[in-house]
């Protein structure tokens, strides 16, 4: 039995490398799908069509010969369907397995679950390397995504990293640590989207995949040999034996079994709000990219990359804002949520009326705090729910987020195409309206809570006193809290 002593080993590198790798892999997959489908989209121009008129829109471009044209509308439509299939191949199994693995991490430890998800990512990129090197069919990519979905997909990586952070932080410092982790995750995804285009144009699709492969190997080595376990061995238990017990544990998250009655209502309200915000923000982000490459904005590849980079900077500015909010002791989580939602609403309204490049690049400035609400809601939920169920909580949040992305992608994508002949920016006005309703509902919730100031930085909600536990469970709680406090003050010591 070997022991590893680490002064300040954290889980943030695992989250950053995993999400950077997944985002870069998605960009490579997208480009490969476009290249495979491009020959089908090359057509002759219709008879009696003015060549100048045909080339005057954003959606049509020539190939190397003037006799054939690349119909980008057809290409985007077919590629969009395949990319959706690839996403669903990972999301559908990932939603179910992430809940099981989230509960499993509360019972057996965080490291083993992170290792399972990282191995799934390694299998996925290995199959992508095989497909692209051998120029195989797009269908083979589905198997890699299914394998990653069975291992939990990115939902498990994010959920367990969040739960790990909750394990090693006090409630006073948890919000800022979760915001830091969310910033690294968002920044990693955005950075991969920004650099992938330049790299693929210069070196092709294979070198980025080898980088993804290497990052997954580094993650596995880091988890096995360097990352300490936060679930103390003496207090671990065997995984649940049947599916019924897993369902019971999930249902208890919304009942009095885990948190007090008042807080359980708040858990439900926060989760519903999280879903609504995720649907609007993630769905409108996809629609925003579609809006930017079409008339009247007509962004080219370079401007799309710059715009994506500017949107990525929102994660950093949100972190800076939350850090500054620490110096305002009377600022409760309610007001932070309201400020973040107002920023997101302003960005969507500005997008709806943006018809020039300059206005589109002002959108990230208006949405400078748009990423604050989701991160703060995660922290608030973590403080409410008993620490024995942090893995389950963040797995549920991850499932809600990924389902919200899928819902937003389908709803707002369809809404954009249905309303663009009326007003191209109507989709974003509808999204802003939904966020405004959510903002009002959160305000009403705060009103009925009696204007209690649950400050996200100084609040200390003690939920374990309200859980009906035996004396042995109480001693377990004290032991785990003492161990986690010792790790925060003196570093971590893990034997494995």
From TrEMBL:
The gene is LOC116289413. Keywords: Cell membrane, Cytoplasm, Disulfide bond, Endosome, Folate-binding, Glycoprotein, Membrane, Symport, Transmembrane, Transmembrane helix, Transport. The lineage of its organism: Eukaryota, Metazoa, Cnidaria, Anthozoa, Hexacorallia. GO terms for molecular function: folic acid binding; symporter activity. This is Proton-coupled folate transporter. Its main location: membrane. It catalyses: folate(in) + H(+)(in) = folate(out) + H(+)(out); pemetrexed(in) + H(+)(in) = pemetrexed(out) + H(+)(out); (6S)-5-methyl-5,6,7,8-tetrahydrofolate(in) + H(+)(in) = (6S)-5-methyl-5,6,7,8-tetrahydrofolate(out) + H(+)(out); methotrexate(in) + H(+)(in) = methotrexate(out) + H(+)(out). InterPro entries: MFS (IPR011701), MFS_trans_sf (IPR036259). It is found in: Apical cell membrane; Basolateral cell membrane; Cytoplasm; Endosome membrane. It holds the Pfam family MFS_1. It comes from the Eukaryota. GO terms for cellular component: apical plasma membrane; basolateral plasma membrane; endosome membrane. It is a multi-pass membrane protein. The chain crosses the membrane at residues 82-105, 112-134, 146-166, 178-199, 205-227, 262-283, 303-322, 334-353, 359-380, 392-416, 422-444. The keyword Nuclease does not apply.
